[in-house]
Here is the input.
Amino acid sequence: MAYSRMSMNAGFGGKARLALLLFPIAGAVALSGCASKDEDLDLAAYVDTIEPADVLYNQALANLNAGRLDEAAKKFDAVDRQHPYSEFARKSLVMGAFANYRAGKYDEAVAMTKRYVSLYPTQPEAAYAYYITGLSYYRQIPDVTREQTMTRRSIAAFNEVVERYPDSEYVEDSKAKIRFGRDQLAGKEMQIGRYYLERKEYIAAIKRFRGVVEQYSNTRHVEEALARLTEAYYALGLTSEAQTAAAVLGQNYPDSQWYKDSYKLLQGGGLEPRENSGSWLSKAASAITGGKDGA
Here is the structure.
């Protein structure tokens, strides 16, 4: 009897331990079943929220036309997310960029245009994507006293339009904005050059003014840059370079007040404008003459 009770107790204990071991597994299976049902419900709900691409796209256009730019951008983004790599998704990328640009969300606009040109570089809207990129940077160009990163980025994007898509309808406006951007960069160099000139740091000033003459020969700042070079070279006693700067200035802007001031400065030292053909200024003269009205 004792053995029998021991056997029963042992058997009961084994079953109890087995039950305890099996309970977590059973629980996990039950929970797994619940999770699976939940996931099925979530998937079903997600499928129900997906709208046809054309419906979403037209809704986005309607919002855009009504001036609801944020809502339009969200709808265009929904097309891209729900129907990736479709024709509507491709168009939605560039239209969403436009909506964000119009809303002043320039970072979002640039992110979308960059994605577009990386995915669809040969598609018809690629020129427009680069154009929107340029516009987004262009609208952020600061005044000339501040750092000009946005100006450089804007010029780079508009150059892509001009060079990659020469027959595009956006080329002429891109060229105009490139001219503005280059004029802005030249103006920044002039500001720094004047700063050095006022402090009699003539070598540093000459470097800036020379950069304007050589790199931005078709901007309105060249005229002043040549006069400032005359002044800086004269102050250093480099009279041949001062005379050449004034001569190049007179050749290109004979009626300029800057030329009159430079001529007067040289006359005060018994000198006149005279070109030294071996000077870098003489070599730069042809670019100035031929580039005043260029892009």
Remarks:
- The chain has a mean pLDDT of 85.
